Amino acid sequence: MMLEVQHLTKRFGGLVAVNDVSFGVEPGAIFSLIGPNGAGKTTLFNVLTGLYRPDAGEVLFKGRRLSHRLPEHIAARGVARTFQNIRLFGAMTVYENVLVGQHAHVRYNYLDAIFRTFRYYRAEKRARVRAHELLDYMELNDRAFELARNLPYGAQRRLEIARALALRPALLLLDEPAAGMNPKETDEIKRLIRRLRDDLQLTILLIEHHMKVVMEISDRVVVLDYGKKIAEGTPGDVRKAPAVIEAYLGKGALEGAA
Amino acid sequence: MTPGWIIALIAAAGAGFGLALIAAPRSAWPLLGVFGALFACLSVRGWKPARFAIALALLLVVIPAAGVQNNFLFELVTQMGIFAAMALGLNIVVGMAGLLDLGYAAFFAVGAYTWAIFGSAQAAQFMSGDFPLAGWPYFYIFSALAVIAAALLGTLIGLPALRLRGDYLAIVTLGLGQVVRVLANNLDQPVNITNGPQGITPIERPPIGWLESLMGALGIDGGPALGYALFFYLLVLAVIGVVVLVNVRLDRSRFGRAWVAIREDEIAARAMGISPTRTKLQAFATGAAFSGVMGAIFSAKQLFVSPESFTLLQSITILAMVILGGMGSIRGAIIGAMAVTLLNIEVLKSFSDFLARLRQTGFVLDLGVVSFNFANLSDQVEPAKYERMIFGIILILMMIFRPSGLIPEARHRLEEGEQTEQMKATPAGKRRAP
Asked: Do A91 and B264 touch (CB under 8 A)?
């Protein structure tokens, strides 16, 4: 298993945002988390990436314990993420954003930077070449030297993914990558996610509200509602599960439809 | 106008004002013109070697040539350099890493006391040995120690910064900055380390025999006062050069990027594998180090340090330089420091003198409807006394009309050549998996 989530629980005061959730993600899978608003999907992401400490349960990444570690350590281990409400470094250029993403892989110390040693040049050069490769891959190279905050919305989403890829992750967490996109852009995102998995051998954990995207590209889906896992399976299974229909459409929807 | 023309214009202005200043080293206008040319070298874009050459010519030829006739010039530019180094240091903490530090003068104090204690008889008060430590290597050794001491204190003061943000951090650093001043004020008991409020004097200066013989060879005779004025001018210039170089190099490394990333969005930075703890402490230590070295130089230059030199106003003044110049901008910090120092010890003073002269001569301003005799002007109207008010007004105006400073932070692009080389390395359209 690439990622194992075991009986994970996160409480905020009296609210149980994630309640005893367990699932496992196979390497190379596109795995989706869905659920109504407030179901605890983003909270779960924040626990996985170390921004929140779980109250109970464990997270294993490639068999090693990830819970209770600092976000920066988790990132350096190879878990990258994007954010639901885009969080770029707005005052930096597009290119620098991708360089920042490589922080953990650009290895030289303080004195190397001051004296511009061979190590500095080698690491920086490698980082630059890679930054351009990533920007090229995400079709952002012609905007490389613009400030990130000046990019249009869709390009900002792509830049966030490019920055996450700069970490050389094994597991990529995407938090609503298609939010606010028109049908054409949504289609592109869908193809992009598949391409990321196929080209880069990534495992992808996806939160998405666009059911079309989820149902078409996911290998497996987990449905959360009020912090609890109410269903898991292939997109086809999940679509038919009574608990899911109830969660999305309300009690009685099933009888009404029947 | 193309950059070439602008730079030719700057060169011409620099040469003109420079010659005027050498001819009349005591008049204010040529001096302002020379500084104007220096500002321009720092603020326009393009043709870097030419701008660099103009600035160097002004700093290494014009100002020394005028300065040997008028020591005050050296004093002024040395003061600017000391403040510029501090503004650069604070710019790393506040401008780049986004940590509001109101106790920055503390690092300057630590640097100053490091040399003051051992470069005077003071150290004999609490340890045995032969003090002051005269002789040429000691000052330089202790300047290096001042850097280390300030960086250590920076790390120490940075520790609370790890848990605090924004206003809370500002208040804590303000407090810690005061703690250092109060310590300097009170560490004359039980063991006399700092000599308390009386301060420490006299402080040794490094021997400058080589410079005096050089001046003698050039036929300049001004005695040790001029020699030291020139020495500290050159020393500060050299240190500023190093500080700028270190600052630029750090800025264009993973460290500088991490500072800005933490400022822009700490959570996103952490998700990119950047440790905020380490990054913030590095910013604090680096900023403090810049200030520490200038502290040591300051104490040797003044021959005297006392806790009064390291007040909150000092910290605020440096912050004002950073804000005026443009937060996060290296050139901005230098220009801010130059502008504020110039305003402080040259412009306001000249204006005060001007009003005093009008008052003495009883100049009558007659506007027809109202007329005013300057002899009746109150003694209280003296711009040099209104430094803080004038700063306040300038800062307010800046916030309204130019909130990102004189030279706003521009995240650097690659050098032109480099950029195209990289572009060629991965031609657009040929998309492959990275």
From this structure: yes
Q: Which CATH number belongs to the domain containing residue B100 in this structure?
A: 1.10.3470
Asked if B409's CB is within 8 angstroms of A87's CB, the reply is no
Contact B383, B352 (CB under 8 A): yes
Domain co-membership, B243 together with B324: yes
Domain limit, last residue, from B13, B40, B67: B67
Interface of A with B in 91-130 (CB under 8 A): 91-93, 95-96, 99-101, 103-104, 106, 108, 110, 113-114, 116, 120, 124, 128-130
**B8-37 confidence digits (pLDDT tens):** 888 888 898 888 888 888 887 888 889 889
Give the neighbor-by-neighbor strand order of the sheet with A3-12: A15-25, A3-12, A56-61, A64-65
Residue B326 shares a structural domain with residue B184: yes
Report the complex ipTM: 0.93
Q: Which domain holds residue B151?
A: 72-430
User: Does the CB of A134 have a partner CB in chain B at under 8 Å?
Assistant: yes
* Model confidence pLDDT, tens digit, residues B107-139: 999 999 999 999 988 888 888 888 788 777 899
Q: Supply the DSSP symbol for A86.
A: -
pLDDT at A232 over 80: yes
Q: Which two tokens stand for residue B29?
A: 């206008």
Q: Are residues B9 and B136 in the same domain?
A: no
C-alpha distance from A109 to closest chain B C-alpha (Å): 9
- Label residue B398 by pLDDT band (50, 70, 90): confident
- Looking at chain A, which runs of residues are DSSP E strands? 3-12, 15-25, 30-34, 56-61, 64-65, 79-81, 171-175, 203-207, 220-225, 228-233
Chain B residues in contact with A116 (beta carbon < 8 A) = 249
User: With bands split at pLDDT 50, 70 and 90, how would you rate the model's confidence at B222?
Assistant: confident
B192: contact with A, CB 8 A cutoff: no
> Tens digits of per-residue pLDDT, A206-230?
999 888 899 999 999 999 999 999 9
Look up residue A246 and give its two tokens. 């109830």
Within an 8 Å CB–CB cutoff, is residue A146 touching chain B? Answer: no
> Which 3 state secondary structure label does DSSP give B95?
helix
The C-alpha of B285 sits at a distance from chain A's nearest C-alpha, in angstroms, of 12
B42 and B96 co-located in one domain: no
For residue A108, the chain B residues in CB contact (below 8 A) are 253-254
Note whether B24 and B102 are same-domain residues. Answer: no
Q: Which residue from B265, B271, B409 is facing A81, i.e. has the nearest CB?
A: B271
**What is the rounded CA–CA span in Å between residue A131 and residue A101?**
9
From CA B53, how far away is CA B14, in angstroms rounded? 11
Are both B60 and B97 inside the same structural domain? no
Mean pLDDT of B223-243: 91
Whether residue B353 sits in one domain with residue B382: yes
Q: Kindly tell me if the per-residue pLDDT of B147 is higher than 60.
A: yes
Which stretch of DSSP H or E encloses residue B365?
strand B364-366
Is residue B105 domain-shared with residue B46, that is, in the same domain? no
pLDDT for B206 beyond 80: yes
Tell me how many domains chain B contains.
2
Three-state secondary-structure class, residue B68 = coil
| Residue B426 touches partner A, C-beta closer than 8 Å | yes
> Residue B417 pLDDT > 70, yes or no?
no
In this predicted structure, the answer to whether residue B1 has a pLDDT above a threshold of 70 is: no
- pLDDT tens for B314-329 read 899 999 999 999 999 9
> CB of B222 within 8 A of CB of B68?
yes
Question: Of B13, B41, B67, which residue is a domain's last?
Answer: B67
pLDDT confidence tier of residue B424, bands split at 50, 70 and 90? very low
pLDDT reported for residue A256: 56
